[in-house]
Design goal:
This protein is an alpha+beta fold. The protein folds into two domains: about 120 residues, Uridine Diphospho-n-acetylenolpyruvylglucosamine Reductase, domain 3, CATH 3.30.465.10; about 200 residues, Vanillyl-alcohol Oxidase, Chain A, domain 3, CATH 3.40.462. The protein has 14 helices and 20 strands. The strands form five sheets. The protein has an eight-stranded antiparallel sheet. A five-stranded antiparallel sheet has the order 6-7-11-9-10. A hairpin with a 5-residue loop joins β6 and β7.
Length: about 450
């Protein structure tokens, strides 16, 4: 299979020499071995929700979408064994039918499981880690075509290898299966409320501590924020009527936002007024439903994104820094700034490694000039000890990143052992991880 490939935003593009779509693990092994023999870089690709160049190659792209089944669910431990190409949406539905759920999810569920794990995709909630913390095992197809079990009690490297594979950037090999710790199905009672941004930031610690899940969208130029709080509950689901869902999720969250952003792209000087209008249009709502239906929402407005993981204590200063940057320099930006929270974890390259974390994400409507905004935000976030989200836009080099990850060298050691000839290394990974790009077709 050949042809052009682009990500969800349409801004990362490539034309691989081959696009492979294995139907099972044995076919995946053959794909890996053939790429190695042909001297081609191989990159796994999911649903294209990484805004950076992780999947870009002129070599071989491996589409895992046919590896999409739940293989087993242990009724005692709640551990599910699933194929790595299943989407979070389909996985959540399959678990729900079995009375189980993922402990936490992000606000988009169209990513493949492998892609979401490999980039440290996360939701929000200071007591909950990112998605990769739910991974307790799996199977990894290595560069030599052999398959390695990630939770092998007889392997002395197994604990570190599992911690590396949880957030691997696709640099260690290709995940074929994943074991996940699930929880009993639960509901969420979610409340959305527009508030003054100054009040949100002043009471941020209390707000985060008082709710299971907290996120908010700060709208530039408006002084307003839409605050979303959720509590976990066993109460029966009481979903809103279809007309209200259409009003909040379709008309306001997608159609109205798209119209405003399209106007701002066409007339950049209108962005301050559009930001104020966006803040004024925000409205409150409540929802009580099964967790996977509340965590994730439909996103049809196309954008590109950069996101930064910061020490939890820096959240307030980071939001001030971004909004001041936009307003002081009159940047043509009215897309909301998203803020979320997560617990510390120990995956070697997790953006939340070793510290409670606040995430600050900035967006720009597709086709708009994002570079001046994102570069200025990157400089501000780096000053606050920020770590870039692996699946989103950033320009931080390996030399800088290595100082922010205490076990960076251990990840590098494991990667060198699993892929000594750079089969999985495209130009983006070479720069990001500081790995010499081997002379192969498809490094770009």
């Amino acid at each position: 299979m050949t042809g052009d490939w682009s990500d969800w935003s349409g801004q990362q593009r490539c034309r691989p020499a081959r696009r492979e779509q294995p139907a099972d693990e044995s076919e995946l092994v053959s794909v890996v071995r053939r790429a190695a023999a042909d001297g081609l870089v191989l990159r796994p690709v999911g649903s294209g929700h990484s805004f950076g160049a992780l999947c870009v190659t002129d070599g071989v792209q491996v589409d895992l979408s046919q590896l999409d089944r739940v293989l087993d669910l242990d009724p005692v431990t709640g551990v599910a064994r699933v194929q790595a190409g299943i989407t979070l949406h389909d996985l959540s539905l399959a678990l729900h039918h079995r009375g189980r759920a993922l402990q936490n999810l992000g606000d988009i569920d169209r990513q493949t499981l492998a892609g979401a794990l490999s980039t440290a995709t996360h939701g929000t909630g200071e007591a909950f880690g990112n998605l990769s913390t739910q991974m307790v095992g799996g199977r990894l197809v290595r560069a030599d075509g052999t398959v390695r079990e990630l939770a092998d009690p007889g392997d002395p490297d197994s604990p570190d290898l599992l911690r590396a594979a949880r957030v691997s950037l696709g640099a260690l090999g290709v995940l074929s299966e994943v074991s996940l710790q699930t929880v009993p199905a639960f509901r969420l009672h979610k409340r959305e409320q527009p508030r003054a941004l100054a009040d949100v930031l002043a009471g941020l610690d209390e707000l985060v501590a008082a709710n299971d899940h907290v996120e908010f969208y700060a709208v530039p130029y408006s002084g307003r924020a839409l605050v979303m709080t959720s509590r976990r509950t066993d109460e029966p689901a009481d979903p809103p009527p279809a007309w209200r869902t259409w009003l909040t999720d379709d008309l306001l969250a997608n159609q109205a936002l798209d119209l405003l952003q399209r106007t701002g792209r066409r007339v950049p000087r209108s962005q301050p007024a559009l930001g104020r209008l966006t803040g004024a249009l925000m409205s409150g709502s409540t929802r009580l439903d099964d967790s996977h239906r509340v965590f994730a929402t439909e996103r049809r407005v196309r954008f590109t994104e950069s996101e930064w993981a910061l020490p939890r204590a820096a959240a307030r200063e980071a939001v001030h820094a971004v909004t001041r940057l936009v307003e002081r320099h009159r940047l043509p930006v009215s897309f909301p700034v998203e803020v979320r929270f997560a617990a510390a974890d120990d995956a070697l390259l997790s953006t939340a490694y070793g510290r409670p974390t606040a995430y600050v994400a900035v967006h720009q409507y597709v086709g708009s000039d994002w570079q001046p905004y994102f570069r200025a935000v990157e400089e501000a976030m780096l000053d606050l000890d920020g770590r870039p989200h692996w699946g989103k836009r950033h320009e931080a080099p390996a030399a800088l990143l290595a100082r922010r990850y205490p076990e960076w060298s251990r990840f590098a050691e494991l990667r060198d052992g699993l892929d000594p000839d750079g089969l999985f290394v495209n130009d983006h990974l070479a720069r990001t991880l500081g790995v010499p790009a081997v002379h192969r077709t498809g490094n770009r």
